Known about the structure:
Layout: H1 2-14, E1 17-22, H2 29-42, E2 46-50, H3 59-69, E3 74-77, E4 90-96, H4 102-119, E5 122-130, H5 138-143, H6 153-165, E6 170-174, H7 185-194, E7 199-202, H8 208-217, E8 221-224, H9 237-244
Parallel strand pairs: 1-2, 1-8, 2-3, 3-4, 4-5, 5-6, 6-7, 7-8
Helix pairs in contact: 2-3, 2-9, 6-7, 8-9
The structure holds SN-glycerol-1-phosphate (1GP).
SN-glycerol-1-phosphate binds near residues 179, 203, 205 and 225.
Amino acid sequence: MKIYNQLLNTIKEKGAAYLILLDPDKLSENKLTGFLKHCEKSGVDGFLIGGSLMVNGELESFIKKVKTNTTLPSIIFPGSITQVSAFADAILFLSVVSGRNPEQLIGKHVLAAPLIKKSGIEPIPTAYILVESGSTTTAVYMSGSLPVPRNKPEIAAATALASEYLGMKLIYLEAGSGADNTVPNEMIKAVSSQCSIPIVVGGGIRNPQTAREKVKSGASIIVTGNFFEDENNWTLIKDFASAVHIKQSILI
Length: 252
Ligand code: 1GP
């Protein structure tokens, strides 16, 4: 549980952790090195790597390049069972607990488990809760399941609590990459009032203030992806990091 414990330590020290999602389809390998350096000096705590739909990117060579250019943890955020690589540090072992599609709840996991064992990387059991966010997101479509209605925080809270009782180590409240609306603060508060494991929040977060609101509502890990696909936004990475690191900053 090395990487999981490292995340817990970061949460304890800084108040919350800030992870950036790297999608090999969207970040070209020639821009990658510069981006990683920028993230390191801006206070990012680690990377998620993957995507619901990987069309062009070659995951293995991408992860190798990430690992040679940063010492920050590289955690696979798999969209399918082909996204397992021994070169990463860990993998979110995601079960789409918001849905009722058995393949996404346990089926794919049976196929992936031996591959993860063989790779030697650390699986982090994660309850993945898709939250309705305006229009149909890739994650919802690809999972073949319904998201939790955004005005039903009590459903998210009960789902998260059941997941914790089942032994999950993280709750991931996902609005979806590029979501119109982020996970509602009320929902994060409801989940946090029920659960003692860390809550990850991602999807549609486009400014540091929003990231800070999610942390104040009870998120322990914030994930952003899309926003930094535009190189002009890279100077804002440090503002996101200090907004998330609520124990360390006086900002916002
Ligand atoms: C990670 O899917 C998110 O949970 C990333 O979302 O690309 O909208 O930041 P964005």
